[in-house]
Each structure stands twice: as structure tokens, then as C-alpha cells.
Give the backbone structure.
Amino acid sequence: MVGRTAADIVTRRFTRFAAIDWSGQAVARPAGLAVAEAHDDGPALVTRDGGWSREGILDWLTMLADTQADMLIGLDLSPALPFVDAGGYFPDWPGSPDDARALWAMVDAMAAGDPHLAATSVVDDAELSRHFRRHRALGDRFGQGRGRLRRCEERQRAAGFSPTSCFNLVGAAQVGKSSLTGMRVLHRLAGRIPVWPFDPLPPSGPVIVEIYTTIAARAAGVRAGRSKLRDADQLDAALAVLGSAPHAPSPRYDDHATDALLTAAWLRGVAHDPALWSPPALSPRVARTEGWTFGVV
């Protein structure tokens, strides 16, 4: 069984919500990292002197685990690669992991020498590079068109969104680097925080879910193709559609900050919906190998 039943889930009421906009950039403090929290008032950025690093976010998550914060935490990354479509992450390779946690462990081990929790060594590996689209290089196992998709990404496409394959490392919409670096963080959390749906929803304490910030933007009335908000007034107008109070004044209004702020407020508004915790296509196999994007049904 994948977690608890819808009847059980609806009784879990979080009091705190956070959204983390992620980045796979191989530098100490990626500009794309942003963290926002939503409580009873409007959302606010969580800042760190000098900016966030992936190690810093790992420390912050560990603190939430240690204090058993009653928080739902959205991570804007794909926690696993496509598996179900081809019967494996890296079909025909004997070293291909059998599930997501084994994938996280493999990625972290292969990238152990990469600084800043980057994952350059993974995509440069002679065998694994065959599956990725990289600058000036298309692996022979990448597939056709957009590349391979997870089951939840296929559902996103059916709903009118435009997800990108985790095996794509090229272009502004690429998510592969973010996903691989995020897997290193999830592995290093060592189970301190349950990650849904790989883990059942616990009765208390923090929980991590995968988020897709475009879903929050669309729910807030931001039209397709204009999902990025870059000033305080636009952000507050979108928050009002979600039923949220205005945000706390922010030190930055780039795409990453506003994505985090808006999505934290969206999580607060929808986390109680049992349908989002029980999507029909979320089979035990999908939950174990690919995971699911919260908000996709």
C-alpha cells in the first residue's frame, strides 16, 4: 500500500509550509536557490547571509527533522528518473538501480568528488552519458523528441503543462541537473524526513513532496507562457487569487524568489485535499521508483 488512505490523510493538518526553488548549477551558492515559508500570514522568504547553498539547505532540512517541525516542504525538482516506461532508469545496464533510494545512493556515490553537492561526474560517466542530452552531445539512449518522461510527467502533459525530461540537460527548462543534485541531498537526509510517496505520510513531523511551481502559478491565475512574476504587485495579485494574504517585503523579486513565495502559499491552500495524496495513477511501483509531483491527479 502506498502510504495511508485518503480517509487517514485528510486528518493530517500541517501548520507550516515551505517551498524550495532548486538549482543544479555547479557553484557554491547558486542564484536559483530560494526558500519561502507560509504560516498564518502571507509567505516570506527565508534568507541566509551570502545566499543559500545546497549544503545550507541540507542543514536547514536536518534542523527541521531534529525539531520535528510540523511542516510540508515542497522541493522543485524531480526526485527520480523515468523508470516505468522502459523497465529501468538505465535499461540494459547491469548497474541500473532498482528503486529511487538506490538511485539516490548511486548518484551521491558517483558524485562524491564533486564540490557543492553538484553531480557533474554522473552526467560525464561514459555509460550514463548515453542517456542524457548535453550541450553538443545527444546520448544514443536519450530517446525521441522530448525524451523519456515519468508517469506523473505524462499526466502533466495531459493536463496542458509542458514538463521536461529529467534526462535533458540543455536549455532554460532543463531539470536534469537540478534533479541529480537534489538526489544527493535526499540521500544525505538519510530518511530523517519522509519523502512522499516513497515514504508513507507520517502522523507528525516534516514531510517533503515534489512540486512543480507552474502548477501553483496556473492555480493563481497566471496565464501559460507568463508564469514568472517579477514584482511585488504582481505577486500579491496572484496570492490574492489563492486566498493568501500579501507577502512579507522581499529582498529579491527574481523568478526563483517569487516561485518559492507563490508555491508556499499554494501548498498551504491545497495540502488538506485528500485527492492530491491519492492520484489514481500512483501505483506502488510508481511510488517506489519514480515518485509523484504533488498537485498532479
Observations:
- Residues 100-187 form one domain.
- The chain is about 35% helix and 10% strand.
- The first strand starts at residue 16 and ends at 21.
- The CA atoms of residues 112 and 292 lie 27 Å apart.
